[in-house]
Specification:
Blueprint lengths: L3 E15 L3 E8 L3 E7 L18 E8 L6 E10 L8 H17 L7 H16 L2 H18 L20 E4 L4 E3 L11 E3 L1 H10 L4 H7 L6 H15 L7 H14 L3
Helix pairs in contact: 1-2, 1-3, 1-7, 2-3, 3-5, 3-6
The structure holds zinc ion.
């Protein structure tokens, strides 16, 4: 079987044990999308991988890739960038973990996406230094912009049904993928009302770079409305997002608090 030697930038999404000395590593790569790799000997005392396979590290990886194979062989991973402060604070830890989890769940197929990789990298970098109130906005901004890359952006400017422009909030319908005007177009029970402030915030989150989010976040950021709309949208459109992820962010903060660091 033909083997291709692939060199690509990637983010380490997660890694877990395989046998005594190896790791399975999920990489989101610039050129080949999500690749699951085996790193042989990565847990041995003289591992050549060092700390490069920790989640959230951006690496330059060399992979021996066989197309018919589920697990690829990771030959080399050099650290390009990493942000230790993400793992020293429960709020940063939870949001950074949600970025990695998004890619692990949402990115499938063989298509690489260098722009999505860079967006995720910039989001992690911004989260490592941002003030606490901005962390949530950086995460939601990442999710909305990543959905655009995946061709799944929610419709927020005109009613899904009558196409009239929306200027006073609307009824958010997760499954139909955006907003209804509410009069005359109503929901079917699964839609819920969001305010004009929340609608404008969702739009703005789709436009700001992660680095600019900090200075932009408004005083009355409508956090609960934004979280609810984004979470419901993700669970409606990405089959592997079961349940509300905001509760998992909470769980992650709790497990952080319990873990001996
Ligand atoms: Zn309408």
């Amino acid at each position: 079987m033909a083997v291709a030697i692939v060199q690509t930038d990637a983010l380490v999404l997660r890694s877990y044990r395989l046998g005594e000395t190896s790791l399975i590593v999920h990489l989101f790569t610039a050129d080949h999308g999500l690749l699951r790799c085996v790193a042989k000997g990565a847990r041995g005392p003289k591992s050549r991988f060092g700390a490069s396979l920790e989640p959230g590290v951006r690496v330059n990886a060399v992979i021996y890739r066989k197309f018919a194979r589920d697990l690829q062989l990771l030959s080399k991973a050099d650290i390009v960038a990493y942000w230790p402060s993400l793992w020293e604070d429960p709020d940063r830890f939870a949001r950074a973990g949600a970025v990695l989890e998004f890619l692990d769940r949402a990115a499938y197929g063989e298509a690489g996406d260098a722009e999505l990789l860079d967006l995720a990298t910039q989001s992690l970098a911004s989260m490592s230094t941002a003030s606490h109130p901005a962390l949530e906005a950086i995460l939601r901004g990442f999710e909305i912009q990543a959905l655009k890359f995946l061709g799944l952006a929610p419709e927020l400017t005109s009613c899904l049904e009558c196409r009239s422009p929306l200027e006073r909030g609307g009824l958010f319908h997760p499954l139909r993928g955006g907003l209804l005007c509410g009069a005359p177009c109503g929901g079917d029970g699964s839609a819920f009302r969001i305010s004009e402030r929340a609608r404008k915030t969702l739009l703005a989150l789709g436009d700001h770079t992660p680095a600019s989010m900090e200075s932009w976040v408004m005083e009355r950021y409508p956090g609960p409305e934004v979280s609810r709309a984004v979470e419901r949208f993700l669970s409606a459109h990405l089959e592997r997002f079961e349940g509300l992820r905001s509760s998992r962010v909470g769980e992650r903060i709790e497990s952080y608090a319990r873990s001996p660091r």
